[in-house]
Amino acid sequence: MLSAQKSVVLSLSIGLTALALNPAVAFDLGQVTVGPATFQVEMAQTAAERQQGLMFRRELPPDQGMLFIQSPGSALFWMKNTYIALDLLYFDADGRLLQVVAAAPPCKTPDCPIYPSTAATVRYILEINAGEAARRGLHIGDRLRLK
Which CATH number describes the domain made up of 2-146? Predict the structure, then answer.
């Protein structure tokens, strides 16, 4: 099944370079709180925004991130063309933190690892700088609150 997942992810990557070079992909801005931490976020809600994500970014301030919003289900993330290490936080539809992938490294090879959710009920995925989840004391069960 993992090879099928890689095929899906790889097929999505065909247009990613064009998207990355297209400044027309504009993200809505918002603020989220997770447990004791607050982040200013870009919200990736459309397919184009989710595909673009944080690709080709060279830095991300410690109080910022990107919130991916999807229909509830499994989530697959990879770090292709992402230049900064990130923590990936997976939340269910109620905003409960289900899983943290700590310090997912940038991928500099053609065959990037995939970081799947362990739950099939993921609605929100928050990407923040690597180490921020631990530094800010975030724990499984913490609630995501959108402002």
Answer: 2.60.120.1140
